[in-house]
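Please check these two lines:
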Amino acid sequence: MFATRTGNVSRNELSDFESINRNGKIAMKRDPGVQIAGGDICTIADDVLLTTARGQCIRFPVDDVRIFKGRDSTGVRGIRIEAGDHVISMALLRHVEASADERIAYLKMARAVAGDEVEENGNGNGEEEATQGAMLSQERYAEMGAAEQTILTVSSNGYGKRTSSFEYRITSRGGKGITAMAVNDRNGPLVASFPVENEDQIMLVTDGGQLIRCPVNDIRKAGRSTQGVIVLDTADDEHVVSVERISEEEETGET
C-alpha cells in the first residue's frame, strides 16, 4: 500500500516489485510534483490510517482499495485534503469489528480502570456521544483490550500524546476524516502518527540538530482531539522533523 501527500492511495501485489533494477523501479505513478508520503506491506486484516499536517485523519479497511494491475496507476482517493494541507504519514492498524457503542463503552470502562488518568476533550471521543448506560461483558472487554492499539501523535513544536485506537472509528475511504490532534500555533502542524507499544521508546530529531530519546510510557494518554503535552522543548525557530519508534526487540538486538 502506498499513499501520496495529496491523499491518494494505491495497492499492489508484491509480485509487481520482483526483479528490482539497480536504479530502482517506479512504485506508483504520480502527477508532476506529487510526493509519496508512505508505503508498507499490508494484508486484508489491516486498516489504513492516513494523517495530515493540519490534524485530520481517516481510518479505512485495506480492502476498500482494490488491487491495481501493474504500477502505472495514480491510485484512488484515501482522504480528501483541504487547500494548504497534506498527508504526513500512513500507518497500518489491526482491523477490529466493533460498533460505536462498544468502542465508547470500552473507552469509558478503560478510563475507570485506569483511574481517569486519560485526558479527555469533551466526551473523549470526538463527534460521538456515548449511549447512556452502555456496558460490555467482561469477556468482550477483555477481547477488545487484547485488540487495542495505541497511536502516538507528534507535532512540529515537540508536543505529543498517545490515544487508543478505538477512538479512531473505521469509515470508508475518501472522506475528509476526523480530528487526530488539535493543531494550533502552540503545538504546530503534525509530523508523525503511528502505533506504538508500551515497552517502546521513541527518538525525536529537530531541524536544529537536537535529539531526544524517551520511553513511550512517559507520554501522557489523551483523547483524540486534545493538544498533547511537551515531549521535546524546542526553541522558537526549531521544529521536530523526524520521529522514530524503537521497539523492545530492536533495543535488545532480537529479531
Summary: Residues 122-127 have pLDDT under 50 and may be disordered. The chain is about 10% helix and 30% strand. The longest helix spans residues 100-113.
